[in-house]
Amino acid sequence: MSLSLALSLTALAGAIVVLAQRGDRVVALVAIAVAGFEAATAAGLISLRIGGVPLGLILAGVLLACGAVLWSRSSGKPAVTGATAIAVVGAVQLLAALHVLR
Length: 102
Description:
Blueprint: H1 3-20, H2 25-42, H3 55-73, H4 77-97
Protein backbone atom coordinates (compact mmCIF):
# COMPACT_ATOMS: atom_id res chain seq x y z
CA MET A 1 0.00 0.00 0.00
CA SER A 2 1.41 3.35 -1.00
CA LEU A 3 1.41 6.45 1.18
CA SER A 4 -1.03 8.25 -1.10
CA LEU A 5 -3.49 5.36 -0.88
CA ALA A 6 -3.15 5.20 2.92
CA LEU A 7 -3.75 8.95 3.23
CA SER A 8 -6.77 8.80 0.94
CA LEU A 9 -8.27 5.89 2.88
CA THR A 10 -7.66 7.76 6.14
CA ALA A 11 -9.55 10.79 4.81
CA LEU A 12 -12.32 8.53 3.52
CA ALA A 13 -12.68 6.86 6.92
CA GLY A 14 -12.72 10.25 8.66
CA ALA A 15 -15.44 11.52 6.35
CA ILE A 16 -17.54 8.41 6.95
CA VAL A 17 -17.19 8.89 10.71
CA VAL A 18 -18.27 12.53 10.45
CA LEU A 19 -21.24 11.56 8.28
CA ALA A 20 -22.23 8.82 10.73
CA GLN A 21 -22.11 11.29 13.62
CA ARG A 22 -24.82 13.39 11.93
CA GLY A 23 -22.50 16.23 11.02
CA ASP A 24 -22.87 18.55 8.07
CA ARG A 25 -23.99 16.06 5.43
CA VAL A 26 -23.22 18.08 2.30
CA VAL A 27 -19.62 18.85 3.26
CA ALA A 28 -19.09 15.28 4.52
CA LEU A 29 -20.42 13.87 1.24
CA VAL A 30 -18.06 16.13 -0.73
CA ALA A 31 -15.17 14.89 1.42
CA ILE A 32 -16.24 11.28 0.83
CA ALA A 33 -16.41 11.84 -2.93
CA VAL A 34 -12.98 13.54 -3.08
CA ALA A 35 -11.30 10.98 -0.81
CA GLY A 36 -12.89 8.12 -2.72
CA PHE A 37 -11.71 9.55 -6.02
CA GLU A 38 -8.19 10.00 -4.63
CA ALA A 39 -8.19 6.43 -3.29
CA ALA A 40 -9.33 5.05 -6.63
CA THR A 41 -6.65 7.07 -8.40
CA ALA A 42 -3.95 5.94 -5.95
CA ALA A 43 -5.04 2.31 -6.37
CA GLY A 44 -4.79 2.64 -10.16
CA LEU A 45 -8.50 2.13 -10.81
CA ILE A 46 -9.05 5.58 -12.33
CA SER A 47 -6.75 7.71 -14.45
CA LEU A 48 -7.75 11.28 -15.19
CA ARG A 49 -5.59 13.94 -16.77
CA ILE A 50 -6.60 17.54 -17.21
CA GLY A 51 -4.22 19.71 -19.20
CA GLY A 52 -2.71 22.59 -17.26
CA VAL A 53 -4.60 21.94 -14.03
CA PRO A 54 -2.81 20.12 -11.19
CA LEU A 55 -5.67 17.86 -10.11
CA GLY A 56 -3.86 16.70 -6.96
CA LEU A 57 -3.53 20.28 -5.80
CA ILE A 58 -7.22 20.99 -6.30
CA LEU A 59 -8.38 17.79 -4.59
CA ALA A 60 -6.04 18.36 -1.65
CA GLY A 61 -7.34 21.90 -1.24
CA VAL A 62 -10.93 20.68 -1.29
CA LEU A 63 -10.12 18.05 1.36
CA LEU A 64 -8.39 20.64 3.54
CA ALA A 65 -11.34 23.04 3.23
CA CYS A 66 -13.88 20.30 3.95
CA GLY A 67 -11.89 19.15 6.97
CA ALA A 68 -11.66 22.69 8.35
CA VAL A 69 -15.40 23.32 7.88
CA LEU A 70 -16.34 19.98 9.41
CA TRP A 71 -13.96 20.52 12.32
CA SER A 72 -15.45 23.92 13.10
CA ARG A 73 -19.00 22.53 13.03
CA SER A 74 -18.36 19.30 14.95
CA SER A 75 -19.01 18.87 18.63
CA GLY A 76 -18.65 15.16 19.42
CA LYS A 77 -15.29 13.52 19.95
CA PRO A 78 -15.55 11.03 17.02
CA ALA A 79 -16.69 13.76 14.60
CA VAL A 80 -13.88 16.10 15.64
CA THR A 81 -11.35 13.27 15.23
CA GLY A 82 -12.69 12.42 11.77
CA ALA A 83 -12.67 16.06 10.69
CA THR A 84 -9.12 16.48 11.99
CA ALA A 85 -8.02 13.45 9.99
CA ILE A 86 -9.55 14.93 6.83
CA ALA A 87 -7.88 18.30 7.41
CA VAL A 88 -4.46 16.81 8.17
CA VAL A 89 -4.56 14.56 5.11
CA GLY A 90 -5.60 17.53 2.96
CA ALA A 91 -2.79 19.65 4.38
CA VAL A 92 -0.15 16.94 3.82
CA GLN A 93 -1.34 16.33 0.27
CA LEU A 94 -1.46 20.08 -0.44
CA LEU A 95 2.10 20.57 0.81
CA ALA A 96 3.25 17.59 -1.25
CA ALA A 97 1.51 18.95 -4.36
CA LEU A 98 3.23 22.31 -3.83
CA HIS A 99 6.56 20.45 -3.51
CA VAL A 100 7.11 21.73 0.04
CA LEU A 101 7.27 18.10 1.23
CA ARG A 102 9.43 15.78 -0.81
